[in-house]
Write a structure and sequence with these properties.
There is one protein chain. This protein has one domain: Histone deacetylase domain (Arginase, Chain A), CATH 3.40.800. The protein is built from nine helices and eight strands. Strands 2-1-3-8-7-4-5-6 form an eight-stranded parallel β-sheet, with helices on both faces. Helix 8 links the parallel strand 7 and strand 8. Helix 4 runs parallel beside helix 5 and helix 8 packs parallel to helix 9. It is globular. The structure holds zinc ion. The site of zinc ion has 6 residues, from loops.
Length: 297
């Protein structure tokens, strides 16, 4: 298999998957905030970005990461998606678009070096069922897409919660390294291979960035990095006291610098970020712009 190396250094515009199906008009932040983020991008607040509509995930793709009966129950509406309301055509279109966006973002990153998708609600979805507002695991689909072109994929999950769904689907895959740093014990998983799995729960803000940096160790040598860039770690977005906007900004710089120094294509997903801690949804969307700004500079 060829180890694709994109042009270096990265030159914009940054391809970011987003389409009208992404955001639902009602429901949790997971399914409403991407529209706000897209509006801020279109207003030029995140640098040189090219928004493109992705192809929705197909049934065959979904069956490559999930149990076929689970996939079919979501597609035909006999089951509700994970915890964000009753089944609807609009909701189905949203999860198919945001899942497919991760796959198309991988193609773009292999072409130009960096990309992303305004997708949330991915990493808790496990093989047999959805979980924690995540219906389909777009990170897992993105990893399998990448493995069609490269030998190894790293997934860095810095959402406030662990990505137990991703570990459930990809934990046994020798081509995938998982680094998962959380500030909440929710969805914790047990590493089965310490050479390519790292799980850390941070309880003091001063430990956060050192722990993130340490987690990179397990990702060394990967050919492409998927970055689940949750903002729910922020002290006012559902996370840990002392994790400030400045700290988040530094975190995003650390991630992009790590990938850039190694000339590794890198793909972000928005992931978590909520109003639980007193921020408005606009504030949460603005936090997500920190990821995109780090990718465009
Ligand atoms: Zn989360």
């Amino acid at each position: 298999m060829s180890n694709t190396r994109p042009p270096h250094p990265f030159q914009g515009p940054l391809p970011v998957a987003y389409g009208p199906d992404y955001a639902l008009h009602t429901g949790l932040e997971t399914v409403t905030k991407s529209r706000l983020v897209a509006e801020m991008i279109m207003a030029g607040e995140a640098g040189d970005v090219h928004l493109f509509p992705p192809q929705p995930a197909t049934a065959a793709e979904l069956r490559s990461i999930h149990d076929a009966r689970y996939v079919d129950s979501i597609l035909d509406g006999t089951a509700d998606y994970a915890e964000f309301g009753r089944w609807s055509k609009e909701g189905l279109a949203s999860v198919l678009a945001t899942t497919g966006g991760m796959r198309d973002a991988v193609s773009e990153a292999l072409r130009v070096g960096r990309s992303g998708s305004l997708s949330s609600g991915l990493h808790h979805a496990r093989h047999r069922h959805g979980c924690g507002f995540c219906t389909f695991n777009g990170l897992a689909l993105a990893a399998l897409e990448a493995l069609r072109h490269v030998d190894t994929v790293g997934i860095l999950d810095l959402d406030a919660h662990f990505g137990g769904g991703t570990a459930d689907i990809l934990g046994d895959n020798p081509g995938v390294a998982l680094a998962d740093v959380s500030v909440s014990p929710f969805d914790r998983w047990n590493p089965v291979d310490h050479d390519r799995h790292r799980v850390a729960l941070v309880e003091e803000a001063e430990d956060y960035l050192p722990t993130v940096s340490h987690s990179f160790g397990v990702l060394e040598g990967c050919d492409l990095l998927l970055y689940n860039a949750g903002m729910d770690t922020h002290e006012h977005a559902g996370g840990l006291a002392g994790i400030t906007t400045d700290m988040i900004r530094e975190r995003e710089t650390l991630v992009v610098r790590w990938a850039t120094e190694r000339q590794i294509p890198v793909v972000f997903a928005l992931a978590g970020g909520y109003r639980w801690g007193g921020l408005s949804l606009e504030d949460v969307a603005r936090l997500h712009l920190e990821t995109i700004r780090a990718f465009t500079t």
